[in-house]
Amino acid sequence: MTEMNQKHTCNTSHKGCVSLVPIFNHLDTEQMNEVMETVQSQSFKKGELVYHAGDKSDVLTIVNKGSLRLYRLSESGKEQLVRVLRPGEFTGELALFNEKVHENYAEAMEATSVCQITRSQLQALLVKYPSISLKILQELSSRVDQTEQQAARFTTESTEQRLASYLVELLGSDSQSDIVTLPLTKKDLASYIGTTPETVSRKLKELEELNLIKRISSSKIKIVDEDNLLFL
């Protein structure tokens, strides 16, 4: 591949990455091109770590293709899944305002490419384009809401209710289908809702016996009765 073709491919990848992100996709073409000039790309194989807990955190990492799982380890070594990032989603935004280290691990769930912008580069963009700051605040607010909801579920809902709520969330309010695809392995799903893989399997079976869901395959589930699933 010639140097010109390599540059074109790189710019095309950067543009696709930047245009996916809600904090950037409101910018006009000229502004978007300026953001693209600051972006660096990296690729990771399934199972590779983008960063470790304790690593210096000084870049905004945006998923371009693939997916990342963010998790933390307890003192006993038990994993707790924090979040799964899909294309257009990002991590590291808090470190862009303060010197800090990562508290979580970020692992590629499949072949994954990311775009990264350093703290100093993003801070310069925030000064020049304040609308980016507002978009970041909106995203942070949304994440705080999600974290609070998840914390409330751990204290007020049973394992069965947390699993049911997760399935309904996957369905989405504007979905045209009643079939959901589980984006997590059974181990990760168990970690996310605070239980064991064995309990997840047992609870899915119980929900199916109640005719609330129907398992089509190991990863696909048909929501048979959404209303009663929500009010277990």
UniProtKB/TrEMBL annotation:
Show the GO MF annotations. Answer: DNA binding; DNA-binding transcription factor activity
Task: Output the SUPFAM superfamilies linked to this UniProt entry.
Answer: cAMP-binding domain-like, Winged helix' DNA-binding domain
Annotated Gene3D superfamilies: Jelly Rolls (2.60.120.10), Winged helix-like DNA-binding domain superfamily/Winged helix DNA-binding domain (1.10.10.10)
> Which top-rank group of organisms is this from?
Bacteria
Residues annotated as transmembrane: none
| Entry annotated with the keyword Transcription regulation | yes
Task: Give the GO cellular component terms, alphabetically.
Answer: cytosol
Q: Where is the Cyclic nucleotide-binding domain?
A: 23-143
Keywords, A to Z?
DNA-binding, Transcription, Transcription regulation
Span of domain HTH crp-type: 157-227
Keyword check for Ligase, yes or no: no
Q: Which InterPro entries match?
A: cNMP-bd_dom, cNMP-bd_dom_sf, Env_Response_Regulators, HTH_CRP, RmlC-like_jellyroll, WH-like_DNA-bd_sf, WH_DNA-bd_sf
Matching entries from PANTHER family are given as: CRP FAMILY TRANSCRIPTIONAL REGULATORY PROTEIN, LISTERIOLYSIN REGULATORY PROTEIN
This one is known as: CRP/FNR family transcriptional regulator, anaerobic regulatory protein
Which species is listed as the source?
Answer: Alkalibacterium gilvum
